[in-house]
Amino acid sequence: MQPLLSKLKSGIENKVENITSAGIWNSRGAGELDAVSESLDIIRIDARYFDIDCVPAMWARPLLFEMALYDERHLLYKRMLGEWRGLLAMLALKEWRLIPLNVMNVQLPDPRFLKTLPDS
């Protein structure tokens, strides 16, 4: 039977304080959660092989992009950094490479749709 939790890293990468006795509650600070999350030995999946699918929300993708771009430990960091660099390159080289970038106004058939979007 597979364990439900990932194993902890070994050596100095493991920042979790050992539990010395079973069946006794120990008080630990909030920093212990950080230590556990940083000490889990997880398998990194190459971000090219999966995509994020979830309940659709207007701001989900921009928020994911922001979270991943500013956190070098995020699983999608390299992918989002590449997308950001690609966007900047397209904007910088638009005229020289004749890249057809356009901005267009989108008319929604039913204006009631806008009421479903949360305010930023």
Written overview of the protein:
The longest helix is centred in the C-terminal third of the chain and has 17 residues, at 77-93. The mean pLDDT is 79. 30% of the residues lie in helices and 0% in strands. The chain has two domains: 1-43, no CATH class; 47-100, no CATH class. By secondary structure, it is mainly α. The protein has helices at residues 31-39, 60-69, 77-93.
Short synopsis of the structure:
30% of the residues lie in helices and 0% in strands. With 120 residues, it is an all-alpha fold.
Topology:
Blueprint: H1 31-39, H2 60-69, H3 77-93
Low-confidence stretches: none
Domain count: the total is 2
Query: What is the general shape?
Result: elongated
Our count of helices gives 3
**For the terminal residues, how far apart are their CA atoms?**
45 Å
Largest sheet: none
Kindly state the percentage of residues in helix.
Answer: 25-40%
Please trace the helix and strand order, writing H or E for each element: HHH
Q: Please, what is the average pLDDT?
A: 79
Calculate Rg over CA atoms. Answer: 22 Å
Portion of residues in beta strands equals under 5%
Which structural class best describes the helix and strand composition?
A: mainly alpha
The total beta strand count reads 0
Task: Provide tags for this entry.
mainly alpha; about 30% helix
